């Protein structure tokens, strides 16, 4: 992604993306095909709509801890979202400049799960006895980048992973993947005209062998029809659990967003359209289905 200014935040984002792209083969596969189709010249030309993280809602962790990283770099907490069935809460965060991606952070409401599942989660997270973010120099981009890849609890065993999977696939994902970047998002409306709608871009994705999340339809649309989202199905990773047991599980994925121009700005010349003229924020109904990009029903279909 191309940034106007090189800052601590852009260095953090670059480090995050580097690890993410290595773990998610679809990232480079999509970029290479976009370059071949002349949609972009390189990865730097792709506008990143937002990135997302998953957390455990327990003491010393969760949104209250994780958001400090971005607030320290002038992001502002915005809308709140609740997902009743999945037992999740989330906020999105607006960046200080338009060249930076939005941030979406969700957390699992652990105390809403069964006692059996809570006990498995807390067997790992109870070892975190203070807020780990408080120990980081948030102005040190290398330290922050390292934090995202550092284990906060011991490696789970495969039996615990499978028990979590049975009640909360989100819990199972976080207990193994921890704070890895869950997804980045290609801003489809910023692409050339032939590919700047989700209909055309999704056809392109399927033509290069990308599996799309079909929960709620390939295109998830907000109630006002102004925010449209699709996502790939998570790439699987060969996970090595404790006791060296291995299993292929859901890793991360790629999202695709199309933000429509707000009605009051439809008469503006195309070259005058900026981020502020398009639909902002997120939509609970859309996000609820996007979460399922890592669910077994999508990964194993």
Structural commentary:
By secondary structure, the chain is an alpha+beta fold. It has a single domain (8-299), classed as Roll (2,3-Dihydroxybiphenyl 1,2-Dioxygenase, domain 1). Helices cover 33% and strands 20% of the residues. It contains 10 helices and 10 strands. The chain has an 8-stranded mixed sheet with strand order 2-3-4-1-5-10-7-6, with helices on both faces. Helix 1 (8-23) packs across helix 2 and helix 6 runs antiparallel to helix 7. The longest helix has 16 residues, at 8-23. The radius of gyration is 19 Å and the shape is globular.
Query: How would you describe the oligomerization state of the chains in this entry?
Result: single chain
Which runs of at least 5 residues are low in confidence (pLDDT < 50)? none
Helix content: 25-40%
Number of domains: 1
CATH fold name, please? Answer: 2,3-Dihydroxybiphenyl 1,2-Dioxygenase, domain 1
Whole-number mean pLDDT? 95
Helices and strands, in N-to-C order? HHEHEEEHHHHEHEEEEEHH
Total DSSP helices: 10
Biggest sheet record: 8 strands, mixed
Distance between the termini: 32 Å
Number of strands: 10
Gyration radius (Cα, Å) is 19 Å
Helical/strand content category: alpha+beta
- In the CATH hierarchy, the architecture is Roll
Strand content: 15-25%
- Spatial strand order of the main sheet: 2-3-4-1-5-10-7-6
Shape: globular
CATH class: Alpha Beta
